[in-house]
Amino acid sequence: MREPAKELHRALEILELPKFITKDDIKKQYRFLAKKHHPDLGGEAQKMEEINYAYKLLMKYIEEFRYTFDENEISRQHPGGDYAQRFRF
């Protein structure tokens, strides 16, 4: 299983964003980086794919969950493998 916290933090790094942001911040930064790295404008296709993936991942997280990328919040939203263990007696 992938670790959602690591994926989200990697997406933030790709889009060069801090942990506490808004949906508009993500959109603005995505547009800025897309213009800078788009293959039609001399950028690399691989970099643009990373930017697109990061944008989709962060937007999905924000729409479905919360506006913070704090590790505790991510852990609550995506409990992962230790979820069942926390409720055992």
Break the fold down into its secondary structure elements and pairings:
Layout: H1 4-14, H2 23-37, H3 45-64, H4 71-77, H5 83-86
Give a written overview of the molecule.
With 89 residues, the protein is mainly alpha-helical. It has one domain: DnaJ domain (Helix Hairpins, Orthogonal Bundle), CATH 1.10.287. Helices cover 64% and strands 0% of the residues. The protein contains 5 helices and no strands. It is elongated, with a radius of gyration of 15 Å. 15% of the residues are buried.
List the secondary-structure elements in sequence, H or E. HHHHH
Category from helices, strands and their pairing: mainly alpha
Quantity of strands, as a count? 0
Query: Might you state the CATH topology name?
Result: Helix Hairpins
Number of domains: 1
Give a short synopsis of this structure:
Helix content is 64%, strand content 0%. It has 89 residues and is an all-alpha fold. The protein has one domain: DnaJ domain (Helix Hairpins), CATH 1.10.287.110.
Annotation keywords:
mainly alpha, 89 residues, Helix Hairpins
